[in-house]
Amino acid sequence: MNIVQKAEHWGDTHHTVWLDVIRIVLGIFIFVKGVTFVGNIQPLQELMSTRFHYVPVFIVHYIAFAHLVGGILIACGLLTRVAIAFQLPVLFGAVFFVNMAQGFDALNSELWLSIIVLCLLIFFFVYGSGPLSVDEYMKKHIKLPEDY
Fold first, then answer.
1. Where are the transmembrane segments (predicted)?
2. Whole-number Å distance between alpha carbons of 37 and 23
3. Cα 107–102–91 angle (5° rounding)?
4. For residue 106, which phi and psi values (nearest 5 degrees)?
5. Which residues contact residue 17 at a Cβ distance below 8 angstroms, ignoring those fewer than 6 apart?
6. Model pLDDT for residues 35-88, shown as the tens digit of each residue
7. How many domains in the chain?
8. Residue 146 placed within a domain
9. Which end of the chain is more exposed for a tag (fewer CB within 10 A), N or C?
10. Angle at 18 between CA 12 and CA 23, to 5 degrees
11. How does pLDDT run across 12-31, given as a tens digit for each residue?
């Protein structure tokens, strides 16, 4: 068993309910952030183009779509690790390219918020979705064939 499988197994056996509440709130927060991006995509596009001079429209739409779909999946606990895998590049970019360019300042609340969300995403990527999730419900109640 490699280290990733050991971490997943430990996370699955030592998950508490209050961590699920944090995962749900994180998912809702990411979804709401996605709604704000979709509702007003022009400032995001301008911010990205001033930092990188040329940003394909695809990247801006990827950020909004990843937040919308990923936030719902994280909150529900459905395919949590996959949803987080799509969120991680967005948050790494937010922390290291967008917010750090504005300066590492104690008053830069967007930077601290991005760092906290990134740390939580990494935590739930390792430890999984927990007992209050659709993934756990499916494991317990839906029997898959042996050869699946």
1. 21-41, 53-75, 82-99, 111-134
2. 21
3. 90
4. -65, -25
5. 130, 131, 132
6. 988 888 777 777 666 666 666 777 888 888 999 999 999 999 888 889 999 999
7. 1
8. no
9. C
10. 75
11. 666 677 888 999 999 999 99
